[in-house]
Write a structure and sequence with these properties.
The strands form three sheets. Strands 2, 3, 4, 6, 7 and 8 form a six-stranded mixed beta sheet that branches. The protein has a two-stranded antiparallel ribbon with strand order 1-10. By secondary structure, the chain is of the alpha/beta class. β7 (about 330-335), α16 (about 340-355) and β8 form a beta-alpha-beta unit. It contains 17 helices and ten strands. Bound molecules: heme C (HEC) (2 copies). One heme C binds near residues 179, 191, 205, 213 and 221.
Length: about 375
């Protein structure tokens, strides 16, 4: 029996909440979304009105969660993993660990998704920031992440009082090995990121430190640090917050940008690693030699607006329409992202599927490209008055 009908057959004897929980689980495992509506039909012989109301509310939430599951699969799974437990690419964190969902308010989640985390692989997905998702769609993803648990988390908003200088001593010893310095990310979430610090309350940060994130390398520090030291570290993180606002979206990305850089130039000679990856050094040389080349930015378009390789064109991993304008005439096409291979890999796979053979993924990605001091065009962060 196919998995979908198994879910349906066994689930129909259960209450709607559990039917839907199963259905979402099946969705994550790759089963089709289409039969959800059928599976969540509420039995007609329910007599108690409150049951019906409750079931209707659950069913409506479940429909949104299902829409969210589809959006999640399309836009987020490549880094956060199909099951949202993180670490599919670029150390993207888990989005479903118990302590995270219990302390991340919907406002925190929505803001993180809409505005992204500048300077990391986490792009801005909100339409107002140049991304592909409307607010309802972001909310649907949040419903999906929370499903079948409570649909929101309440957190106190009181600021934590502590001494940032003492906090720095603790941070350098106990946190920096994983989280990196104020200036640069380590392997774990960048705690100095303006996007995080705009979205997170002190209480959210404190709870994460106290209880950790079970199932990830983030251990609980309760017992390892006393309360005062924890407050001091939170005060340090808060002192890193800046007044910069995320860039809003007045700027339009032109649809008719030229795709080919230096159309009259020579063809570069690239040596690919594993028949797939081209080094940043080779691409930089090709640009200096005014070679004929196409460079595609595979991230969400807002990321291209904020930081890009000069001459590159946005061709996001979730929308291939720009690729239709490419001519398959032997011109090299290089795609890059920040992850540094996942989103660009999706674009290169699509091009190869369409018969483009001279295609490559920029091996180091744009963030390393910038660190190397190679040319970029960048939009300055907008200062926010607070
Ligand atoms: C290209 C990889 C990538 C994609 C695609 C991506 N993310 Fe992320 N996301 C990250 C990384 C990396 C971080 C951590 C950023 C940091 O270092 O601060 C992150 C952080 C987050 C956070 C904050 C988590 C926390 O613990 O503070 C949320 C929420 C989130 N992502 C949701 C999403 C959603 C929803 C989508 C799809 C719409 C998505 N992400 C797509 C890489 C990605
Ligand atoms: C062994 C590595 C490691 C150490 C040491 C560590 N962390 Fe973490 N931390 C992580 C990882 C990995 C995550 C993301 C976990 C996930 O996927 O949800 C994280 C998450 C967090 C978060 C939540 C961020 C968010 O947006 O959800 C905070 C806050 C945090 N760490 C603070 C600290 C502080 C403060 C210290 C030092 C006292 C510290 N961590 C030490 C690995 C570490």
């Amino acid at each position: 029996m196919p998995r979908g009908s198994l879910v349906h057959a066994t689930a129909c004897g259960l209450g709607p909440a559990r039917i839907l929980a199963r259905h979402l689980a099946a969705l994550l495992l790759g089963a089709s979304a289409s039969s959800l509506a059928a599976a969540c039909a509420i039995p007609a012989d329910r007599d108690r009105a409150e049951d019906v109301d409750r079931d209707a509310a659950i069913a409506s939430r479940a429909r949104r969660a299902t829409q969210g599951a589809e959006l999640y699969g399309r836009y987020c799974a490549l880094c956060h993993g199909r099951d949202a437990r993180g670490y599919a690419a670029d150390h993207a964190p888990s989005l479903v660990s118990e302590t995270f969902l219990a302390t991340a308010t919907n406002a925190f989640l929505a803001r993180s998704v809409r505005e992204g985390r500048p300077g990391t692989a986490m792009g801005a997905y909100g339409r107002a920031h140049g991304g592909p998702l409307g607010n309802d769609e972001v909310d649907a993803i949040i419903d999906f992440l929370r499903w079948p648990g409570p649909s929101w988390a309440a957190m106190p908003d009181a600021p934590v009082v502590g001494d940032p200088e003492r906090g720095e001593v603790v941070y350098n010893e106990m946190c920096q090995p994983c989280h990196g310095t104020k200036a640069s990310r380590g392997q774990a979430v960048h705690l100095a990121n303006p996007g995080l610090l705009r979205a997170a309350t002190d209480a959210f940060l404190r709870e994460a430190i106290v209880h950790g994130r079970p199932g990830t390398p983030m251990m609980p520090f309760a017992g390892r640090l006393d309360d005062r030291d924890i407050d001091n570290v939170v005060a340090l993180l808060r002192s890193w917050a800046s007044a910069s606002a995320p860039p809003a979206w007045p700027a339009e990305i032109p649809q008719d940008m030229p795709l080919v850089i230096h159309p009259e130039g020579p063809t570069p000679r690239f040596t690919l690693r594993m028949d797939r990856f081209v080094s940043a050094a080779q691409v930089k040389e090709a640009l200096e030699a005014k070679s004929r080349i196409v460079i595609l930015d595979a991230r969400t378009p807002a990321e291209w607006l904020n930081l890009r390789i000069p001459g590159s064109v946005p061709a996001p991993y979730h929308d291939f329409s720009r690729l239709d304008g490419l001519e398959n005439d032997g011109t090299w096409v290089v795609a890059y992202c920040a992850c540094p291979h996942h989103a660009s890999g999706i674009v290169v796979d699509e091009l190869r599927r369409r018969g483009f053979s001279r295609t490559a993924v920029l091996d180091e990605g744009i963030l390393r490209w910038k660190q190397l001091g190679y040319p970029v065009e960048e939009r300055a962060p907008v200062e926010e008055s607070r």
